[in-house]
Amino acid sequence: MPSRVALVGLVGWVTGCVHADEVCAKYGAEGETICADELFFDQQIDHFRFESASLKTFKHRYLENTATWGKPTGNPLHLPADCPGPILIYTGNEGPIDAFWGSNGFMVHHLAPTWGAALLFPEERYYGKSTPFGNASLEPAQASFMTTEQVLADYATILTWWKETHNATSCPVIAFGGSYGGTLTTYFRRVYPGEVLILQIYSRNPVIAVFYRFDMRWTRGVGAYRVL
Prior knowledge:
The protein is α/β, with parallel strands linked by helices.
């Protein structure tokens, strides 16, 4: 199991993020366009070995949307006084993260505005624009850093940094994922419980074979499933 001590020690080395562009998609029957900022975070290549690679970083792409943060349109959650709203994080899986932005309408178009939540979509390392070694990333020596442990540490690091820089350390976090992403969501809560993650929502998760049909499970409305 990855060490949380290693995570805390490395967070201070990260310098921040760089803004690049926007990613947009249409949601709902009326085709509402919702966009996210495409950002790049200086992520550690190696979170655990403390060898030469642990001193190096790569540009880790993530998407961010705070348009509805602190502005709930439905029943707000019970939150600490200093928390604007919850943070919804999508545990990026095998593919470019911009493709997943457009396929998560329940999270982006429904839950975020209803709860007044911030949205974070970190990309899985070695996919899309998050390639630690550029075109040489999949060569055998470099591919050794493509592990589930490193991916989970990426997400914990960027989430901890984001909460600190946005004065959101008291805000609850809810993780989402589907299929392999659902597996990452389950492992994420298992490896980094409590201080990083309070709840996960997943679909087609091969780890525990629990299947969610949101069109059935959420028929009573989001307000009936409140995080207390």
